[in-house]
């Protein structure tokens, strides 16, 4: 109703104001060419109702048919007066009648001809829920559509497949943000665009590209002209302000009626005043600063320049010119007025630039009223380019309640957050607490779940860039924020001493862990980095990534299989690596469960072959990557990784090579990880599938896991296993819910969660320490060392390992599983076959 009232008022006002212009244009059209004044064409209106749109005729009636369905560039059919009407959009004025009768709105998606609507009817179904308009965002984006299409070899194709889809996108964008304020802003912006004035009066971020003039005309050169002649223009303006301030000082001194004698005094002294102030202003640099960046520094210079020149002018008038009748009060009034004038024009330039007339700002609630929160609010208030309006702080320090920081009040504690969000309806919550604990962020996400609100945070303190604004570094809260632990005190110097100048070999270098190992090792200046991988695509990707960095040492990609002893020995003999990281392994539990023979070949035999070759060719240090699934394993993957651990410990007893093992939990972001699977399911609209509501896992970030590997390598003792103190296990269901929330959706409502039952080889929870093992503190924080209780019979182990390998070579899967259980007695399935096939359905 409000929009229709606005349309009627604007249409009536427009017809009344432009009535003389309409009459003049009608006469000119008649004089220019034969034919009717008004051109009518059927367009599609609201609800797919056709109507006759009215325009001033801009083409000659008798013009030959060019077979062009569109008007392109300098179309010969356009009349002389028509060209002018099109340039300034005056041909659209008769559409005020369409608005008045209700066929159109003043602002709305531009109406299209029927043939385009029929081709894209599904896209137009949303657009035509509102009345078409005289102007809209597409009109701003394509202010001179004919000139734009003229650059295309096929204008019709260009319009159908590029311009029209963009128009539809902008129309839908307008409908989403439709308001009376936006309509008024678009009307003003349209007038400015037609005049080719590069001024933006509203700054909704999503609409920014739509309101920028896409084509440069001679009118837009005004801006560059002003910039090129900026200093002379400033000098002229300052001279005008100097004269005005002095004249108004006389007028104020004499209550608006300046005596004739004083007018003579003004005329006698004003040139000297301009000269003195001009020199002073030049010395104080008043013509050098950019007005859009006016600051306290500029105001200080203005005051300094005015006061200095006032003192000099006073001396000049009294002692040089000898005019002792010059009123002293005028010196003070003149100085005050001039300071106001100079500061006013400069500040107004900044205000008009930084604060568009119509600007929709996002309401932001800031969690944390400390130094970081203060910086965030200060930048949001002073740098309007961010389009953010801080509406309050939330902080658990009750001593700060009701206090104000930069005019923004501390409204309550984190416990009050749901109530505050419900009342204030912010669009964004910014957690201005660098290094916020994951538990704190998880609790925050749960509290805000019902409100479908965007949650953002700052990077860790050590990641904040000093040369960038704090607000520009704000990012979305991510799953790693909710899972990562407190930073580990890393000893990078020890890692550097271990790696620098050494030849380093990584097996499985194309995998998630292997590739991250390669990235981090390059930071410590090895002599040579060897990337050993059997999958050429993965190897190509990581080699290209590192090679593009143009590092100072060679990075050599090597295609090979860890089960191929001949190939491994050839590599070790040729390059003689001093450090070997063994990351090659089959790790996907369900796949390995279905392919136990390959799992034993790769995880067990491959580890033995690699370790024996390393020992034979004098590798100084061998680091084996293991997993928490090797502890009391319930899967083939876990059992084979436990066998691999025993192989390393056996060889370490007699080898000069320093062997050690690193054991950690699930890594987020690796191929096949639960995080990637959940993201794909959310993107597809759900459901998100979880095997069991109570399943829990230890989770690590890939960089975190690799840091552990490198740190453990610096302290590792021969044959020992090292693990990370990973805190508590996290429910996989909680990760699914958090990921749905962080996608701006509600778990169970927007995205269903379905339980599909435990997979073969899967157990409800993982363990870090197995039977017969104890964990003790190491010399590094958060890193534990596993010690074995009692003696292990490695002679018997080697016999059983030979039998296991023989079963693998003979492709005897059932025998292989029996041999695997003999070596790892703890290996057992966590659920029966019947239970594993059970699928629980439902949603939360």
Please give the structural blueprint.
Elements (H helix, E strand, L loop, with lengths): L1 H16 L1 H14 L5 E7 L5 E7 L23 H8 L7 H7 L3 E3 L6 H6 L1 H7 L5 E3 L1 H5 L3 H5 L5 H22 L3 H15 L13 H4 L9 H8 L1 H24 L6 H24 L12 H25 L7 H27 L7 E6 L3 H12 L5 E7 L9 E2 L2 E5 L4 H8 L3 E4 L6 H10 L6 E4 L17 E2 L2 H5 L8 H8 L3 E5 L4 H10 L6 E6 L2 H12 L7 E5 L5 H11 L3 E4 L6 H6 L1 H21 L4 E7 L8 H17 L5 E7 L1 E3 L5 H10 L4 E3 L5 E2 L1 E3 H14 L5 E4 L5 E2 H11 L10 E3 L17 E5 L5 E6 L5 H16 L3 H11 L9 H4 L8
Parallel strand pairs: 3-4, 5-6, 5-9, 6-8, 9-10, 12-13, 12-15, 13-14, 15-16, 16-17, 17-22, 18-21, 19-24
Antiparallel strand pairs: 1-2, 7-8, 10-11, 20-23, 22-26, 25-26
Strand arrangement across the biggest beta sheet = 14-13-12-15-16-17-22-26-25
Helix content: 40-55%
Low-confidence stretches: 208-222, 462-469, 830-844
The overall number of domains is 4
Approximate shape: extended
> Quick one: biggest sheet?
9 strands, mixed
- CATH homologous superfamily title of the largest domain: NAD(P)-binding Rossmann-like Domain
Mean pLDDT: 81
Secondary structure tally, helices: 33
Q: Which structural class best describes the helix and strand composition?
A: alpha/beta
CATH architecture of the largest domain: 3-Layer(aba) Sandwich
Question: What's the total count of β strands?
Answer: 26
CATH class of the largest domain: Alpha Beta
């Amino acid at each position: 109703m409000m929009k229709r009232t606005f349309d009627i008022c604007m249409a009536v006002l427009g017809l009344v104001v432009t009535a003389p212009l309409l009459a003049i244009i009608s006469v000119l059209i008649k004089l220019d060419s034969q034919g009717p004044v008004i051109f009518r064409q059927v367009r599609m209106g609201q609800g797919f109702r056709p109507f006759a749109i009215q325009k001033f005729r801009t083409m000659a009636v008798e013009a030959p048919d060019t077979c062009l369905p569109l008007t392109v560039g300098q179309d010969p059919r356009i009349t002389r007066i028509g060209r002018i009407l099109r340039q300034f959009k005056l041909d659209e004025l008769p559409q005020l009648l369409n608005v008045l009768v209700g066929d159109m709105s003043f602002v709305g998606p531009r109406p299209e001809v029927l043939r385009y609507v029929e081709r894209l009817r599904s896209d137009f179904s949303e657009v035509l829920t509102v009345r078409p308009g005289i102007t809209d965002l597409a009109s701003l984006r394509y202010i001179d559509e004919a000139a734009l299409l003229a650059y295309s070899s096929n204008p019709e194709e260009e319009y159908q497949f590029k311009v029209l889809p963009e128009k539809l996108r902008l129309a839908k964008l307008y409908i989403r943000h439709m308001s009376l304020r936006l309509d008024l802003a678009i009307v003003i912006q349209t007038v400015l665009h037609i005049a080719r004035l590069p001024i933006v009066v509203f700054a909704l971020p999503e609409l920014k590209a739509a309101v920028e003039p896409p084509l440069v005309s001679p009118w837009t050169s005004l801006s560059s002209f002003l910039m090129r002649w900026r200093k002379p223009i400033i000098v002229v303006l300052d001279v005008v302000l100097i004269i005005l301030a002095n004249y108004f000082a006389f007028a104020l001194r004499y209550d608006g009626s300046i005596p004739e004698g004083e007018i003579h005094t003004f005329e006698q002294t004003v040139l000297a005043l301009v000269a003195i102030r001009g020199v002073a202003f030049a010395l104080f640099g008043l013509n050098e600063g950019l007005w859009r960046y006016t600051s306290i520094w500029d105001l200080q210079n203005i005051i300094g320049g005015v006061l200095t020149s006032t003192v000099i002018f006073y001396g000049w008038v009294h002692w040089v010119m000898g005019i002792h009748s010059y009123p002293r009060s005028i010196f003070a009034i003149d100085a005050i007025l001039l300071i106001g004038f100079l500061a006013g024009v400069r500040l107004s330039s900044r205000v008009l630039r930084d604060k568009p007339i119509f600007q929709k700002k996002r309401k932001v609630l800031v969690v944390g009223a400390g130094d970081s929160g203060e910086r965030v609010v200060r930048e949001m208030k002073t740098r309007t380019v961010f389009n953010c309006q801080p509406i309050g702080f939330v902080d658990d320090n009750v001593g700060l309640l009701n206090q104000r920081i930069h005019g923004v009040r501390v409204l309550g504690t984190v416990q009050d957050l749901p109530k505050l969000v419900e009342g204030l309806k912010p669009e964004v919550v910014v957690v201005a607490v660098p290094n916020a604990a994951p538990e704190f962020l998880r609790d925050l996400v749960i509290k805000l779940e019902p409100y479908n609100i965007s949650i953002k945070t700052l990077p860790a303190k050590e990641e904040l860039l000093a040369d960038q604004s704090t607000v520009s570094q704000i990012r979305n809260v991510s799953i790693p924020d909710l899972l990562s632990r407190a930073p580990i005190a890393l000893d990078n110097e020890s890692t550097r001493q271990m790696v620098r100048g050494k030849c380093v070999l990584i097996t499985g270098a194309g995998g998630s862990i292997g590739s991250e190992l390669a990235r981090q090792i390059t930071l410590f200046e090895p002599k040579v980095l060897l990337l050993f991988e059997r999958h050429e695509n993965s190897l190509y990707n990581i080699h290209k990534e590192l090679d593009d960095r143009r590092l100072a040492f060679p990075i050599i990609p090597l295609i090979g299989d860890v089960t191929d002893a001949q190939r491994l020995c050839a590599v070790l003999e040729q390059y003689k690596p001093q450090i070997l990281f063994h990351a090659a392994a089959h790790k996907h539990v369900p796949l390995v469960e279905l392919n136990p023979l390959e799992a034993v070949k790769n995880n067990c035999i491959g580890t033995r072959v690699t370790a024996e070759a390393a020992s034979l060719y004098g590798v100084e240090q061998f680091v084996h990557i293991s997993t928490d699934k090797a502890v009391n394993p319930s899967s083939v993957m876990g059992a084979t990784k436990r066998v691999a651990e025993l192989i390393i410990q056996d060889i370490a007893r007699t080898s000069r090579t320093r062997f050690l093992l690193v054991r950690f939990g699930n890594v987020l972001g690796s191929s096949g990880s639960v995080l990637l699977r959940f993201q794909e399911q959310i993107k597809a609209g759900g459901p998100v599938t979880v095997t069991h509501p109570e399943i829990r896992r230890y989770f690590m970030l890939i960089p975190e896991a690799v840091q552990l590997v490198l740190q453990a390598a610096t302290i590792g003792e021969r044959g020992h296993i090292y693990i990370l103190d990973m805190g508590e296990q996290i429910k996989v269901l909680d990760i699914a819910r958090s990921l749905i929330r962080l996608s701006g959706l509600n778990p169970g409502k927007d995205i269903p969660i379905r339980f599909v039952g435990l997979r073969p080889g899967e157990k409800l929870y993982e363990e870090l320490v197995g039977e017969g093992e104890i964990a003790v503190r190491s010399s590094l924080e958060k890193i534990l060392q596993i010690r074995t209780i009692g003696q292990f019979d490695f002679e018997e182990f080697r016999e059983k390992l030979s039998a296991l390998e023989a079963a693998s070579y003979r492709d005897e899967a059932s025998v292989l599983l029996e041999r695997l259980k003999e070596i790892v007695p703890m290996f057992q399935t966590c659920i029966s076959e019947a239970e594993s096939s059970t699928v629980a359905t439902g949603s939360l």
